[in-house]
Structure formats: C-alpha cells, structure tokens
Design goal:
Largest sheet: 7 strands, mixed
Helix content: 40-55%
Number of strands: 14
Radius of gyration: 22 Å
Number of domains: 2
Distance between the termini: 40 Å
Shape: globular
Order of helices and strands: HEEEHHHEHEHEHEHEHEEHHHHEHEEEH
Length: 397
Amino acid sequence: MNKIETDITEELARLKDAGLRRVLKSIESAQGPRVRVKDAGSSKEQLLLCSNDYLGLANHPAIKEALSRGVDEYGVGAGASRLVSGTMAPHRCLEECIKDFFSAEAALLFNSGYNANLGVITALAGRGTEIFSDRLNHASIVDGCILSRAKVHRYSGVESLERKLKSSKTERRLIITEGLFSMDGNFAPLPELLGLAKKYGATLILDDAHAVGALGEYGRGTPEMLGIEAPDIIRVGTFGKAFGTFGAFVTGSSEMIELLVSKSRPFIYTTALPPALAYASLKSLELVIAGTELRARLEENRAQMSQGLKTAGIDTLESESHIIPVIVGSAAKSTEVSRTLENSGLFIQAIRPPTVPEGTSRLRVTLSAAHTKEELSIALGAITSAVDSSLTDKKGA
C-alpha cells in the first residue's frame, strides 16, 4: 500500500468509529409515500419520510407522459454544453416560463442546485468582494463562497449581520441566505435581510430550493408566502424537490443572466440538461401553479406531524415548515434510531456531521402532500417510541 491508500483505509476506519461512515441505500420503486427499500439482498416496503418530493409529483403520470414525449421529440442527451450546440427549444421555453412565473427579467437553467449556487456566486464575487453568508447555509453556498476567493463573513441572525456590514471595507457586498433552511426547517428573516441589503448597498442572493413549489399561494416560495415583492433578489431554485423533476435555475436581471452565460463556469463547462427533462419540467410547472390543494394538504400534514412531535416532548428546533428535525444528539445514536425505524417500516435517514454541527445529529423528517393522516399517525408513534428508547438508553449509560 502507498501512503494515499493507507490514509484512505485509516480514514474509513475513523469515520466508522465515529458513526460517520455513509452507506448507500437503494430504493427499488418509484418515489412516493411508500417505497421498496433494498436491504441485505431483499426489498421491503417502507413509509418514506426523508424525500424532498414535497408535492408528490415525482411519479405524477402527466409529468411521466411529458418526459416520454420530450424523449420522442428531442432525444435523451443534449450532446454538448449550452454555448456549443446544447441549447435546445425546451431549455429556452422553460427559461421563459420560469422568468414569467417569478416576474423576473430573465432566467437561466443549471444542471443542479449545487451547480447553480457555485455558478452564480463565483461569477458575481471575487477578490474585492465581501460575502455575508448565513451560518446555516447549504454546503453548495459554502463551497461557492470558498471558490469565489472573496472575503467571507458568516453571520448568525440579523444583529450579527448588521454588525459585520457596518465594519465592511468594500462597496461590493453580497448577502446570501436560504429561504427555508434545509436542516433546521426554519425560515430566514427575509424582510430584515432586504432592509439591510438596501441600507448597506448589498445584493441579496436567495436560495429558495426547499420552498419553491411548496410554499406561497402559487408556489413561488418564501417571498410569496411572506407577501414580499423584491424584484432585486437573485433567486436560486430547483426542480428536483417540489417540482418532482431535475435541474435548477437562477432568476434576476437580464444583465446578470448575461454575465452568468459568459462567466459562470458550472454553466459553461458542462453538457446541457437533457432536453426531455426540461420538457417534463414545463408540465411540472403547470401542476405547481395549479397545486393550491397540494400545498394545503402539505400544510395540514406539517401541522399534524409538528404538533404530534412537540406533544411527545421531542426537540424539533421549533420548525414551522415541512422540514422537521428530530434531534437525537450523537451520530451513533441517530444512526441507531434510523435503523430501529427502518425495522419498524419507516425509512428516515440519519443526518450527521459535517452536514450538521457536532452533538445535533438528527432524523430530518420531510413531509409530502402525498402522505395520508393515517400514515403520519403510524410514523408519529414509531418515531416517539424509537427516540424515547434512545434517550432512555443514554440515561442508563
């Protein structure tokens, strides 16, 4: 063994001992409230409570039909990057529809939310820019900040942000936040952030991946939910969650989008999103706009699960969204609780460091409009029992 190989072996052993070694679990059915999970060579049905398919659209027949039509008409692969020969009619049509949906000047597709965050941050920021990034922001934002080579300030709350803005030494300032934080399930103080952006001449980037489609009267995310009109926001969103398809987008001014086309490396240097997926997302967008009842059902499910967990005395970090963390504590305990639930017929993966801070490992319960009240009642009982057993074992130890 050479040094690299030895280090790999040792690091894997360290991760295992710390309860941080990841294992892929295979789902052998379409996404839905119940799925077949492969385990030890066999598959069994599980109630799925860790998917981001918030409106239950990932297996919607109209979207599947649209995808099939898209393949028939445009094939599978785009064949090249967007700037070579990969820009096809569905890409441009979807960008126009997204632009109109958010009342933005322009929109641009990316292959994933991760690429979108890297692409917009690195194109807009560089040496001479100061970035103010919420401490709870997703890894794609963290990585985009690092790659930008800008000076990065991490803030925690509005007062913390204003202190850092006051001491800023540059006129080039970016404030970056998620609208709905993906691990804690709470919302950014968007009105206050917009006020500070205006006061200090900063540009606000809003990653609304977990809210777009799921929140707001027509699914436009946290600004619509809060009744905010903010045309100056640069918005990042994804089709891979509430929309049930794949890909991502950025909206903003026409000039900003033109700059991304010329400078955003994740956009320039990758093969374009398969055109059939863009075609399917057009149908998904129609369903999202018409999905008032789905969003109402998602809210009912959120209220049932949230209230049930709080009544059971489980720490959910006071989440008020369809993302509900169930705090367990250690990485090993969270993995153990996840395994116990799987044996009970519930599939909820453990979330551990470095995704969340040490000592806050958790189950992240994510709800769908497709879940029934009966399924959630079963889930509440199983989660409460598993967490109580874990805490009892911990006290006994």
